[in-house]
């Protein structure tokens, strides 16, 4: 009978892309004749780009198929105060029966060797279990965040308040000390249903058949060791196999690359080509990282004063000072109205500002890029690592403060920006100081050298006898 792996990402294009990358990696690297099916929910965070993306993948990779689960709408019981994560968890829970039926139907004609879910899909773990199908998590953040989540049940028992409300510094195995209010976003507030769903997920991590992590052992040795030694788990005798198979980074053909960025793609890529080696600072804050107009102006002034060349991706500004992400990244806006008067004109020989989106992996691979100001989203971190570009770490949301610590203290490939504690604000003087430090100082030079070293380590990890290659082989062995 045909052997199949079923992957189940949570809704949203970002999660789907990550799972597709895993699927492609499994097909490319394992030389095994698996077919792969991705379950896709319908009714929440649907976007036309998903449709075109899956068409593209189905054509280029015939062994990957997509199965649309029947339409369900997010429950009307979800109150307006529920976070997006809480709504997602509930929506995925409501899809449980459909997941079971679809798995059953596939099992009639195939042997399902593994069922791989992401962290929002824990409710599907028991579905796979009850059918005797081994269930694995695909963990799209790094080992430090994995260590943190494995340890969360322990912290939950010790601390009774919401992390967002306390000043305490948390000691988490495999992690640098972390201020409680810098914990990953979905666990900040106990009054949000997402907190309890996350706790449920954390308690179920050790019950899976294995955890596939998009990182590599030498990138985060502290966290990898803490996990291996069982320091993060409530029961050190119950540690599932962990497979560090990264760095897995998205190929070009990202659907969003086609979005209107306000500048012709060719024009800024050819501008980049004409800049001296390692002279350009690239600033980009992920798929939705954004700032208030006040903060944008500070960045602009800091950049201008630094005198460095730059390529800066600016998203539609947020309405208020505290918000650091936008969900609508397609609506047009006027760059001149959100930047200081005359900024674009004064800096036209030094830099380029692009609205909304650039193909990041391609940008980072340009020789002229010498620094990357990043929001510390894990994909961006790995892309910076693979390109060997030194970074300035400017965490905004999600689990990015944890990643920032890893980048600055452990990998030593980044300088951290000083952020105002209350709201994460960064002054123009700080922007100028850190950009100069990265591009001009002795410390910047050391970080650049270290970044090149880590880049080599990444290449080794995915090379013929590298740790990530071996981990993937072990995963396939487990399936067989
Ligand atoms: N990205 C891109 N161009 C942009 C902004 C983002 O190609 O202008 C890609 C980036 O290369 C990465 C992903 O979008 O693969 C962002 O993922 P990450 O985990 O860094 O951050 P998130 O968007 O999830 O916060």
What's this entry about, in short?
By secondary structure, the chain is of the alpha/beta class. The chain has helices at 13-30, 48-60, 84-94, 96-109, 125-130, 143-158, 193-204, 221-228, 265-273, 293-306, 335-338, 343-346, 360-364, 378-387, 400-410, 428-440, 442-461, 467-479, and strands spanning 2-8, 35-42, 64-71, 110-117, 135-139, 169-170, 178-179, 210-213, 242-244, 280-284, 309-314, 351-355, 369-374, 391-393, 414-416. The strands form three sheets. The protein has a seven-stranded parallel sheet with strand order 3-2-1-4-5-8-9, sandwiched between helices. Strands 12-11-10-13-14-15 form a six-stranded parallel sheet, sandwiched between helices.
Sum up the structure in keywords:
480 residues; alpha/beta; Rossmann fold; 2 domains; seven-stranded parallel β-sheet; six-stranded parallel β-sheet; 18 helices; 42% helix; 16% strand; globular; binds uridine-5'-diphosphate
Question: What can you see in these coordinates?
Answer:
The chain is α/β, with parallel strands linked by helices and 480 residues long. It has 2 domains: 2-250 and 465-479, 3-Layer(aba) Sandwich (Rossmann fold), CATH 3.40.50.2000; 265-459, Glycogen Phosphorylase B (Rossmann fold). It has 18 helices and 15 strands.
């Amino acid at each position: 009978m045909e052997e199949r792996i079923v992957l189940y990402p949570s809704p949203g294009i970002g999660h789907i892309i990550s799972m597709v990358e895993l699927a492609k990696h499994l097909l490319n690297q394992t030389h095994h004749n698996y077919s792969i099916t991705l379950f896709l929910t319908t009714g929440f965070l649907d976007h036309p780009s998903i449709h075109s993306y899956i068409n593209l993948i189905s054509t280029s990779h015939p062994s990957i198929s997509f199965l649309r689960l029947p339409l369900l709408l997010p429950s009307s019981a979800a109150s307006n105060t529920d976070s997006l994560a809480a709504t997602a968890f509930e929506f995925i829970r409501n899809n449980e029966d459909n997941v079971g039926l679809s798995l059953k139907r596939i099992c009639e004609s195939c042997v399902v060797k593994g069922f791989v879910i992401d962290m929002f899909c824990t409710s599907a773990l028991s579905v796979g279990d009850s059918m005797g199908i081994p269930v694995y998590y695909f963990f799209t953040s790094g080992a430090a965040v994995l260590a943190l989540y494995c340890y969360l049940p322990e912290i939950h028992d010790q601390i009774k308040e919401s992390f967002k409300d306390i000043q305490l510094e948390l000691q988490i195995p495999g992690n640098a000390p972390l201020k409680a209010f810098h914990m990953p976003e979905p666990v900040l507030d106990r009054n949000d249903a997402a907190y309890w769903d996350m706790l449920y997920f954390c308690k179920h991590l050790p019950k899976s058949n294995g955890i596939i992590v998009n990182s590599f052992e030498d990138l985060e040795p502290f966290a990898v060791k803490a996990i291996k030694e069982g320091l993060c788990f409530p029961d050190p005798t119950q540690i599932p196999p962990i497979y560090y198979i990264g760095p897995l980074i998205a190929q070009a053909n990202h659907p969003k690359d086609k979005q209107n960025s306000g500048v012709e793609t060719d024009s800024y890529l050819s501008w980049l080509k004409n800049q001296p080696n390692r002279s350009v600072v690239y600033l980009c804050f992920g798929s939705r990282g954004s700032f208030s107009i006040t903060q944008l102006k500070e960045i602009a002034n800091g950049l201008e004063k630094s005198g460095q060349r730059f390529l800066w991706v600016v998203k539609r500004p947020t309405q208020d000072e505290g918000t650091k992400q936008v969900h609508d990244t397609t609506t047009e806006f006027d760059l001149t109205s959100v930047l200081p008067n005359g900024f674009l004109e004064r800096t036209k020989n030094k830099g380029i500002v692009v609205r909304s989106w650039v193909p990041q992996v391609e940008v980072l691979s340009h020789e002229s890029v010498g620094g990357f100001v990043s929001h510390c989203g894990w994909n961006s971190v790995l892309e910076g690592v693979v390109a060997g570009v030194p970074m300035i770490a400017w965490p905004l949301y999600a689990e990015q403060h944890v990643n920032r610590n890893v980048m600055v203290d452990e990998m030593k490939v980044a300088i951290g920006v000083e952020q105002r504690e209350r709201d994460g604000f960064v002054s123009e003087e700080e922007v100028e100081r850190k950009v100069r430090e990265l591009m001009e100082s002795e410390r910047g030079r050391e970080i650049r050298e270290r970044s090149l070293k880590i880049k080599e380590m990444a290449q080794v990890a995915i090379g013929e006898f590298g740790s990530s290659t071996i981990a993937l082989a072990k995963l396939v062995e487990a399936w067989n």
